[in-house]
Amino acid sequence: MKSIVLTDSTSDLESGQADAIGLRVIPLTVRFDGRDWLDHHELGSDELFRRVEAGADMPVTAPPTVQTYRDTLDDLLQRHDHVFAVHLSSRLSDTHAHATEAALAFPGRVTVHDSWQSAAGLALQAERAARLLRDGVPATQVAAALTTLRPQATTRMCLNTLRYLQRGGRIGGAAALLGGLLNLKPILGLREGRVEACARTVGAGRALNHMTEQLRTCAASLPQGRVAFFHNGAPDNVDALRFEARRLGVQESMTLSLGTVLSAHSGPGVFGFSFEPAHVWQNFRAY
Questions:
Q1: Residues 18 and 117 in one domain
Q2: How far is the C-alpha of 18 from the C-alpha of 24, rounded, in Å?
Q3: Over the stretch 178-214, which tens digit does the pLDDT of each residue have?
Q4: Which of 32, 37, 81, 199 has the fewest CB within 10 Å, making it most exposed?
């Protein structure tokens, strides 16, 4: 059966990367400056930051509508027997819910998987799904393998500023002001699909040291692992993490640039990584 993987733009896979993997990407939307922009297609994060700093209102992000999703599935199923959809955590967005509703129009032909991830963690799961389906693994077994993998994956992200959390209403102005005065760099992670605070570091140097130590911890606890990196305007920090990953002998899968949806929530200067098992064992078989 000919299958294809569909993921969303918070995987931050560029078109060339998606084509190389052999999957398709449906974009989320950023409502900003009087119009809707398609993530990764119509507005870059640098331009978004420039407009916000110039006084534009904070952007609002939105998932693909059910109808948009239904139209995308209809198009893909003209050329494929089955669509395996891997999406941003359902605890962070309605993308998974909209995909599930749209799939009802195509009974038995669409599998929808909640990754519990975003950015690089989502991209890694989508890539694994595409590879397994290409190798002839049935969609039910692919879904089981990804579900087994979810609690074993680790994502860490360092914010450079608290201003975007404050402007988006996620923290108070006093907390953002204090964070700026103290030069705090929060370290965030994902746990069962929800964002959680992992640490607060002071200064860029200590933040990079903490992230490097987190990578070492992942490599020690999961020697047969693989890692993907992401950032929006922090290439030197990612290069430092990539150097450490090579030193540790960790398999590097990809490096991604954050699109406008995730950047709208996190602000500029973000960097991070997602770490997961290179192989997942299910019923005595490696996936």
A1: yes
A2: 6
A3: 344 347 898 999 999 998 888 889 889 999 999 999 9
A4: 81
Contact 207, 271 (CB under 8 A): no
What span, in angstroms and rounded, lies between the C-alpha atoms of 150 and 58? 32
My answer on whether 140 and 176 are in the same domain is no
Q: Is the pLDDT of residue 82 over 50?
A: yes
Please say which residue of 150, 169, 191 terminates a domain: 150
**Residue 270 backbone dihedrals phi, psi, to 5 degrees:** -75, 145
- Tokens found for residue 281: 């064992």
Q: For residues 211 and 187, is the Cβ–Cβ distance under 8 A?
A: yes
Confidence of residue 169 (pLDDT cuts 50, 70, 90): very low
The whole-angstrom separation of Cα 60 and Cα 200 is 26
| Greatest extent of the chain over all pairs of C-alpha atoms, in Å | 58
Q: Are residues 80 and 179 in the same domain?
A: no
Domain count, the chain: 2
At 196, list the tokens: 């959680």
Same domain, 30 and 158: no
Q: Are the C-beta atoms of 231 and 274 separated by less than 8 Å? A: no
Identify which of 120, 118, 101 has the alpha carbon closest to the alpha carbon of residue 110: 101
CB atoms within 10 A of CB 285: 11
pTM, two decimals, is 0.92
Q: Strands 184-191 and 154-158: what pairing?
A: antiparallel
